[in-house]
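Late entry, written up from scratch paper. The run itself happened at the end of the previous shift, but nothing got recorded in the book at the time, so transcribing now.
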Amino acid sequence: MAKRSHARRQMKYQGEQFTYNSKHRDSKRSKAKRRQAEENSNIVDINAHSNQLETAYSPRHKKVPLEARTPSQQKYINAIHNNCLTFGIGPAGTGKSYCAGALAAEALESGRIERIILTRPAVEAGENLGFLPGEVEDKFAVYIDAFRDILNERLGRGVVDYCLRHGRIVGAPLAYMRGKTFNNATFVILDEAQNTTPVQMKMFLTRIGEDCKVVINGDIKQSDIRGANGLEDAVQRVQGLPGVHVHKFEKTDIVRSGLVRHLLDRYEYEEPIS
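Output as recorded:
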């Protein structure tokens, strides 16, 4: 009798203990869910599909091959494909930088090259920006923003960020090119070359190795330096060399807007207002 009574008490105790444990676990789960909900309320999903954010911060990735907008652009694109060194000279808005950047992006994406180097002389357009904070890469970033927009459009922002972190895309001042050799796995773009001196241009041109791809762009009429212009000097010197092509854009080749053509006419052919 005593044994049965003890067994009943033991079963009752175990049942109460089980009920307590179940309630305790449920209470812990409820608290965890409430805590998770509170934390989630402070989280913003940056990957959420928002048309407005995608439009503002994520340029559409263009997977279609580059298409020329003018016959002159097509000749320029063909020249880059077929030559080791191509000069693109002419007024602003003709697509010199865009075509070169897009072709470099295509070559990197296809695996034909391993690295893109973007460089330009660190010369301000008529004003002194003063001290810029950060490392060399941060200081020079303002000079290659235009190319970054092109690369973001052709490759996608995530790919460009990855390539910048791992040295697949490099932006550096022209002065940092001294001592380097451009090999066959490299696509190099020298932009705003009208701001180089003949000495700087010679230094850059003598970096060219076998079978690399080099594009030099600029507008001889918009130099921001005093004295001899390295781009104009180089164009005269390279005439007739094998593997070198000089492509000249005209004002009629401007694709940025019709207004740019009219503005250039006013600045080039009319006397300044006193």
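The two ends are 121 Å apart (CA to CA).
(Scratch paper discarded after transcription.)
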